[in-house]
Amino acid sequence: MKSHSVVILVVDEDPVLLRTFRRLLTASGHEVKVLFSASELSTISLEPDCSRCAVVDLHQGGGNGFEVKNWLEHQFPDIPIIFISADGDVPSTVRAIKAGAVDFLIKPVEEQVLLESVRRALEKDRSSQQERNQIQEIARRFNSLTPREHEVLELVVSGRLNKQIGGELGTCEKTIKVHRGRVMRKMGVQSLAELVQLTIKLRSGSAALTTATFPRRGVPSR
């Protein structure tokens, strides 16, 4: 991932903190977008393949940090969130971590602590991005199959033999072998085990559920 494709969102009502964080993170080679309030979230757009994370004040605007987190995750799935707060009480910390935050930092935040937290968040996002890219590629291959190939794939991964598939689909075993070969080729696999693994990955991947078109009698979503 190139450095210019790294974006850090900082949401806080404190202009001094925003300036400090912008200076620090920009000096580290990141693009920084600062927001004074949740109302500015709708102005944010990110490239789909950029590496990103967000630093969010948990108690801004009367305590709507969790709402900000929910909005960000809706717009940018899997974006890592780092909560910051002047109030380091245990319940807030526990709630933040249970909500999926990658870190919870107490103000005033030390520079090296922030940089290390951002580094871990970006590492997590890069890993998630690789996973999303893999699933999108599997979905692209899946969608290249014909309706009949979708049916054959479903029955193959369910453990049926070519003869059984032919009987169920009302065609001969030789024709099923041809369809099965095309499925394997289009899905880019060499074995039944690989085909099953890709199908499971596609079914379980959240990105795939929005890009793959499952056939009417095909592999069911979760």
Please explain how this structure is put together.
The protein has nine helices and five strands. It is an alpha/beta fold. A five-stranded parallel β-sheet has the order 2-1-3-4-5, with helices on both faces. Helix 5 crosses helix 7.
Layout: helices, strands, pairs:
Blueprint: E1 6-11, H1 15-27, E2 31-35, E3 51-57, H2 65-75, E4 81-85, H3 90-98, E5 103-106, H4 111-143, H5 147-157, H6 162-169, H7 173-187, H8 192-204, H9 208-211
Parallel strand pairs: 1-2, 1-3, 3-4, 4-5
Summarize the structure.
With 222 residues, this protein is an alpha/beta fold.
Which features characterize this protein?
9 helices, 222 residues, alpha/beta, single chain, 53% helix
Given as residue ranges, the uncertain stretches (5+ residues, pLDDT < 50) are 206-211, 213-222
Radius of gyration: 23 Å
Q: Which class do the helix and strand fractions yield?
A: alpha/beta
Spatial ordering of strands, largest sheet = 2-1-3-4-5
Q: Tell me, briefly, the overall form.
A: elongated
The proportion of residues forming helix, as a percent range, comes to 40-55%
